[in-house]
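Here is the promised in-class demo. Please do not try to memorize the tokens; focus on the logic of going from shape to residues.
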């Protein structure tokens, strides 16, 4: 009689803007770990043909749709940015759908553990889905420098995003593991490999 292998445990992966969490997630995926990205789930739930998109267009009007029928994120952002009630309405619609999407994607994992990546892991309470939390940590000056280089955006915008995210201290207070990403990509990848070897020795994340 074969014993079923234990269900994969879930590693939450988070970090502030420009911390390198996407690069870390990419390396976990290359090592054969099942990776689920909250941002991708948030995009999937508003794809054309999904009920959420029709609901959003009904509520905000056709002006939030592009000519090809996809969601015009910039137009929607503008509408909710100035109106807290509308933002709450949208979150009330999308958050349960995104949570379902994430749960279904995580349930498909066949690797010993799965990685769940979310930039708002702490703020949204999504860390409760994970048995263990890995925070990619970077000094704030470096976060700003990397984001400005990558996103071709203004310093004000980066600072506004940093303000909206959990503070570094808050993120670190939830962390089981911390990956300090203040060197180059090769160092980050080597650190992910080291953590992966360690994670393979754990049962249920402990």
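The designed amino acids, position by position:
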């Amino acid at each position: 009689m074969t014993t079923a292998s234990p269900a994969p445990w879930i590693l939450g992966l988070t970090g502030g803007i420009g911390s390198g969490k996407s690069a870390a997630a990419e390396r976990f995926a290359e090592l054969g770990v099942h990776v689920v990205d909250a941002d991708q789930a948030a995009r999937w739930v508003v794809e054309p043909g999904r009920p959420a998109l029709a609901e959003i267009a009904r509520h905000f009007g056709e002006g939030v749709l592009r000519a090809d029928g996809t969601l015009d994120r910039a137009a929607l952002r503008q509408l909710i940015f100035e109106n807290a009630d509308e933002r709450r309405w949208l979150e009330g619609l999308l958050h349960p759908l995104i949570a379902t999407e994430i749960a279904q994607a995580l349930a498909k994992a066949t690797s010993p553990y799965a990685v769940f990546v979310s930039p708002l892991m702490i703020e949204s309470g999504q860390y409760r889905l994970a048995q263990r939390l890995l925070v990619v940590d970077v000094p704030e000056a470096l976060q700003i420098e990397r984001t400005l280089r990558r996103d071709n955006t203004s310093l004000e915008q980066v600072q506004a995003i940093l303000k909206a995210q959990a503070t570094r201290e808050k993120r670190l207070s939830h962390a089981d593991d911390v990956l300090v990403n203040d060197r180059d990509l090769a160092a980050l990848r080597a650190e992910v490999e080291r953590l992966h070897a360690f994670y393979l020795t754990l049962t249920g994340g402990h």
